[in-house]
Design a protein that fits this description.
The structure holds two protein chains of two kinds.
Chain A lengths: L4 E5 L5 E5 L3 H26 L4 H25 L5 H6 L1 E5 L7 H9 L1 H4 L6 H9 L6 H6 L1 E5 L23 H13 L5 H9 L2 H4 L3 H16 L3
Antiparallel strand pairs in A: 1-2, 3-4
Helix pairs in contact in A: 1-2, 2-4, 8-11, 9-11
Chain B lengths: L2 H24 L1 H5 L2 H22 L4 H18 L7 H18 L1 H24 L4 H4 L2 H10 L14 H22 L5 H23 L3 H34 L6 H32 L8 H21 L9
Classes of the chains: A mainly alpha, B mainly alpha.
Chain lengths: 226, 325
């Protein structure tokens, strides 16, 4: 429940990392969608009112489209994002991580009725809190998932330094930890860098600034830089 | 191989794929005509291979994160849904939808019984005990029905409004009810059962009351044609909800999750078919049923034709000739 990442293996044998979106951003996206639709309806009512009583029929048709068709049309043509979802950086995808197709989209949006049931989305809220991937009932039945679009922050570059050979052989995980340290060094304060580097005094044989630069040298050597 | 060498070998390929994917988001049509589009599936699979190698060799996040992002973007493009084909919609309505309805005939029969049995029972009961109408409906609603179907009313089936207005109203109202009937079936079928039963009671109550007080003529003349599509679509939407609820209760030889997904997709298709039927019904109701000047033989003849058309369509649509036995 705390870890919302869902790993999905693709046919190519690598795994996608999808981060399920919880109830709060989805509620915000829904609110934006609601406002957008109300504005569209209000704007369209001005010319429609000129048609007199027949215009009321057209307004009904528009209301029908905004209530039921809006979601499906947005999800199919805007790459799984209604306007609110686009604003919040969310996307609807199939359970296997592929972009949402029309049948799951229709299913999840018809079943919105059940999720919306007591008051405003009571069932949907309970379902998103219980489900491991924060799916509402419509998502579970349709086989879809709402995920965050925004990617992870990319790893920092290892600061360039003259490469040094390791004084003694290290296991693969130990090497990975060393490179991780060098990647994160740019985000740490100088004293914290030194504090961490001092833990490796048996390896580096020195302390403080010298130790930090030595570790960066080892990391550069491990990455194969000159 | 050290990371720096690996990156130096492949970085140009990654850069070009990333550039093309970025351009695809901005100008989809133009990018698809360019040369990288032809090479894209192969390039994407090579990058997947690079990611697997990078993870296997324990390269730093600088490389793996970048490749991971590239793969996620490529996956989204490679596996995007095909563009909609409109002739598939026609094929669905002509053949697939009737087949689907027949394949769910048990739920459809149950839904039809839930709608028609209370309706017919009330219709007959009200002929014997007409005073029961006042316990079913408030007197304001009864007065409204009586005004709509008053033989002295020049409009048929409505107290006011133009054809277009009534068309919009019928679509909004009836399709909304049909969709809700289907969706509420997810509550273990209870919602669908309630909506079908309640609609049966209301229909039977109105029909019985109006027939009993002698307003039956305008009422039956108004509803006889479009009810072929409207009532059948309600039964189908209800049946779709029932099969969803029954699948939740007893998924059979599947696990509940996959069974529910399959039932949800079947139900969504049925609901879409019901939607098409209700739009047709709304057209007939607004533009044909309300014509007060239609002579009775034409009116009832066309209604009989429509009923037969609907039943034949659902009964035989999509059957492959000579495939039987």
């Amino acid at each position: 429940m705390l870890d919302t990442v869902r790993e999905i293996e693709t046919p190519e044998g690598v795994s996608l990392r999808l981060r399920a979106a919880g109830p709060l951003p989805r509620a915000q996206a829904w609110t934006i969608d609601l406002v957008v639709r109300l504005v569209v309806l209000a704007v369209a009512m001005m010319p429609l009112s000129l048609f007199g009583i027949g215009g009321r029929g057209l307004a009904m048709l528009l209301m029908f489209a905004l209530t039921w068709a809006y979601w499906v049309v947005c999800e199919l043509w805007l790459d799984g994002q209604s306007l609110g979802k686009k604003a919040l950086g969310l996307r609807v995808v199939n359970a296997d991580g592929t972009p949402v197709t029309w049948l799951p989209s229709v299913t999840r949006n018809l079943l919105r009725v059940v999720d919306a049931l007591p008051g405003v989305y009571g069932v949907g809220l309970a379902s998103t809190l219980i489900d491991a991937h924060a799916r509402r009932l419509g998502d579970i039945v349709a086989g879809t998932l709402v995920v965050h679009v925004k990617e992870w922050a990319a790893g920092q570059q290892v600061p360039a330094a003259p490469a040094l050979p390791l004084p003694l052989p290290l296991a693969a995980e130990e090497q990975a930890v060393l490179v991780d340290y060098a990647e994160r060094a740019g985000q740490l304060t100088l004293s914290r860098q030194e504090e961490l580097a001092n833990l490796l005094e048996p390896l580096t044989g020195c302390r403080d600034t010298a130790a930090v630069s030595r570790l960066l040298g080892y990391a550069n050597g491990l990455l194969g830089r000159p | 191989m050290k990371q720096a060498r690996f990156v130096a070998m492949h970085v140009r390929e990654w850069d070009s794929l990333q550039a093309w994917l970025g351009q695809l988001d901005r100008q989809p049509k133009r990018s698809m005509r360019q040369e990288p589009a032809l090479d894209f599936p192969a390039a994407y699979r090579r990058v997947c291979h690079h990611l697997a190698l990078a993870q296997g060799r324990g390269y730093s996040h600088e490389v793996t994160d970048r490749l991971q992002r590239l793969v996620q973007h490529g996956h989204r493009v490679l596996y995007r849904p095909p563009p909609p084909r409109w002739h598939r919609a026609a094929a669905f309505l002509v053949a697939d939808f009737p087949r689907l309805v027949r394949s769910q005939w048990r739920c459809m029969a149950l839904a039809a019984a839930l709608l028609y049995v209370p309706a017919l029972a009330l219709l007959l009961w009200l002929q014997v005990h007409p005073e029961l109408a006042h316990t079913l409906f408030s007197s304001a609603r009864l007065a409204e029905f009586e005004r709509m179907y008053d033989p002295a009313n020049p409009h048929l089936g409505r107290s006011s409004g133009t054809n277009l207005q009534m068309f919009g109203l019928y679509v909004f109202h009836n399709v909304g009810i049909a969709f809700r009937t289907f969706a509420s079936g997810l509550l273990f079928g209870v919602g669908a059962i309630y909506v079908l039963g309640a609609n049966g009671v209301v229909l039977g109550g109105i029909a019985g009351h109006l027939t009993a007080i002698g307003y039956g003529g305008p009422f039956w003349r108004f509803v006889v044609a479009h009810s072929a599509f409207e009532l059948t679509a309600m039964v189908i939407a209800g049946g779709a909800g029932l099969q969803l609820g029954l699948t939740l209760l007893s998924p059979g030889r599947q696990r509940r999750g996959p069974a529910l997904v399959a039932a949800g997709w079947i139900g969504a298709k049925l609901a879409l078919g019901a939607f098409a039927m209700l739009v047709v019904a709304a057209c007939i109701e607004a533009y044909w049923s309300s014509l007060a000047a239609l002579p009775d033989p034409l009116r009832f003849g066309s209604a009989a034709l429509l009923w037969r058309l609907v039943l034949a369509w659902l009964g035989f649509g999509g059957k492959v000739a000579g495939h039987g036995a």
